[in-house]
Automatic annotation (TrEMBL):
<dbReference type="InterPro" id="IPR029442">
    <property type="entry name" value="GyrI-like"/>
</dbReference>
<feature type="compositionally biased region" description="Pro residues">
    <location>
        <begin position="83"/>
        <end position="97"/>
    </location>
</feature>
<feature type="signal peptide">
    <location>
        <begin position="1"/>
        <end position="38"/>
    </location>
</feature>
<feature type="region of interest" description="Disordered">
    <location>
        <begin position="39"/>
        <end position="128"/>
    </location>
</feature>
<dbReference type="InterPro" id="IPR010499">
    <property type="entry name" value="AraC_E-bd"/>
</dbReference>
<feature type="compositionally biased region" description="Pro residues">
    <location>
        <begin position="43"/>
        <end position="67"/>
    </location>
</feature>
<dbReference type="Pfam" id="PF06445">
    <property type="entry name" value="GyrI-like"/>
</dbReference>
<feature type="domain" description="AraC effector-binding">
    <location>
        <begin position="124"/>
        <end position="278"/>
    </location>
</feature>
<keyword id="KW-0732">Signal</keyword>
<protein>
    <submittedName>
        <fullName>GyrI-like domain-containing protein</fullName>
    </submittedName>
</protein>
<dbReference type="InterPro" id="IPR011256">
    <property type="entry name" value="Reg_factor_effector_dom_sf"/>
</dbReference>
<feature type="compositionally biased region" description="Low complexity">
    <location>
        <begin position="68"/>
        <end position="82"/>
    </location>
</feature>
Length: 278
């Protein structure tokens, strides 16, 4: 079986009317007479000691047409309707916080689930462990090496969502068993350990989802911490160790994801790699 390290790359004018001169004069005389008759009697001048009344403040100039009002310049948000104002002895009520939107594709978290081996591994050492056979939901698939993380991540999410919808309790960390590899890609089985395999099979589960057991027996555990895109270096360590010890292993490496597969460059990723001797 090629190793994981070997396979990875990879307006109109106004008219003026001339009036006869005599008509203009007559109109002016009448206008002057009307002005004199309509003029009111003058008020007596104020006493010398009396200060003149202050002139009224000039009225503000009207804004030019088309100028928006302050409310139009800074409109209130329209997401909520205005409510009644506070009472005379009440403090203003603060606005209610916005509700957070739910995630687009919620997936049950794997936090709190136990790995196949309870005690943690050491990235600088190799552990000889015994893997227990646990009931698991299994989904098979294949992918190219450059799409390893998105493919495995989607497969795990599909299994998790199906189990949650059927009410089946998941109890362990997700696994990937690499059943076949070459230079172009790989075939895999994604497994999620469950409390018990359902019997009878619940309706509504995907047709390609089946139930079985996780790999079991004696195994060598190697621990990888860091981005998945650097996991080939860990597999090189695995290969060197097996060659130095003369250990022949089964043609199926097992990856157990202690932290979620977020992205190929996730620095917080932790993976247990199990090699099962023949």
């Amino acid at each position: 079986m090629p190793t994981h390290a070997e396979a990875a790359r990879s307006a109109p004018p106004v008219m003026k009317t001339r009036l006869p001169t005599i008509a203009i004069g007559l109109a002016a005389s009448l206008a002057c007479g009307a002005s004199v008759l309509a003029q009111p009697a003058q008020a007596p001048a104020p006493a010398p000691s009396q200060a003149p009344a202050p002139a009224p403040a000039p009225s503000p100039a009207a804004p030019p047409a088309g100028t928006p009002s302050p409310a139009q310049s800074t409109p209130l948000p329209t997401t909520t309707a205005p409510g009644p104002g506070p009472g005379p002895n009440q403090a203003p009520t603060p606005p209610a916080p916005e509700k957070a939107l739910p995630p687009a594709t919620p997936v049950p978290p794997a936090a709190g689930r136990v790995p196949l081996v309870a005690n943690p591994g050491d990235p600088s050492d190799v552990d000889e462990v015994t893997l227990p056979a646990k009931p698991a939901a299994i989904l098979s698939g294949s992918a190219k090496w450059d799409q390893a993380v998105p493919s495995l991540k989607d497969a795990v999410a599909k299994v998790e969502a199906a189990l949650a919808q059927a009410g089946i309790k998941a109890t362990g960390k997700p696994l990937s068993v690499f059943t076949r590899t070459d230079d172009d890609g790989f075939q895999y089985e994604v497994m999620v350990p469950v409390e018990a395999a359902p019997n009878p099979r619940p309706a509504g589960l995907p047709d390609d989802l089946r139930f079985g057991a996780t790999p079991s027996g004696k195994a060598l555990r190697f621990t990888h911490k860091g981005p998945y895109e650097g996991i080939d270096q860990t597999y090189e360590t695995v290969t060197a160790y097996l060659d130095a010890k003369g250990i022949i292993v089964q043609d199926a490496f097992v990856e157990e994801y202690l932290t979620p597969l977020a992205s190929p460059s996730d620095e917080a990723l932790e993976v247990n790699i199990y090699a099962l001797p023949k």
